[in-house]
Amino acid sequence: MAAPKVPTTPAHRYTLGAAGARLFGALVYVTMRDHLPAALPAWLSNVGPLAAVRALVPDWLTGPMPSLAHAAAVLLLTAAVAGGTRLARPAMAGSLLLCLALELVQHPVVNDSMAALTGAAGLAPGRLLAYAAHGTFDSFDVAAIIAAAAAAFWLIKRLMPSKGETD
């Protein structure tokens, strides 16, 4: 039997890294968070071994881990879509700004300002405002997003070919 093929291009590696980050984020939710996303069955929150794992890791650490995993996945997928070209870094910078904006829009001051502006203009709040209304701003999440970006930029610097980059 032949050995499985190992991804050889940076884009393949970025995609695998993004998948690993998403898996890590899901495992954090299942094992370390007190509240689970609505898509997961409620009985998972009462499994004894998971409660024991939750007790070992402080909330200030488990809280931002999904944000770190999400940002890493988004940034690595962005690099993969750019195909390992010199456009990857600017595209990743745009994805980083999007990740930060989605966290910052949850800040009460920003959220209230958006609600006042859209209400005064007679505009429907839209999905972004609805997202912000149900989210909770956390400065640790902002730090996690920045840490994920630093790691992703470092990783693509190591994996991206330095010669023969294409547009």
Concise account of the structure shown:
By secondary structure, the chain is an all-alpha fold.
Write up this protein.
The protein is mainly α. It has one domain. It is built from 8 helices and no strands. Helix 4 runs antiparallel to helix 5. The radius of gyration is 19 Å and the shape is flat.
Structural class by helix and strand composition: mainly alpha
Write the H/E string, N to C.
HHHHHHHH
Q: Using only CA atoms, what is the Rg?
A: 19 Å
Strand content: under 5%
Estimate percent helicity. Answer: 55-70%
Note poorly predicted spans. Answer: none
Number of E-type strands: 0
Number of domains: 1
The major pleated sheet works out as:
none
Q: Overall 3D geometry?
A: flat
Count of individual helical segments: 8
What would the keywords be for this entry?
mainly alpha; 167 residues; 8 helices
Secondary structure blueprint with pairings:
Elements: H1 10-32, H2 48-56, H3 59-62, H4 65-81, H5 88-104, H6 108-120, H7 126-134, H8 139-159
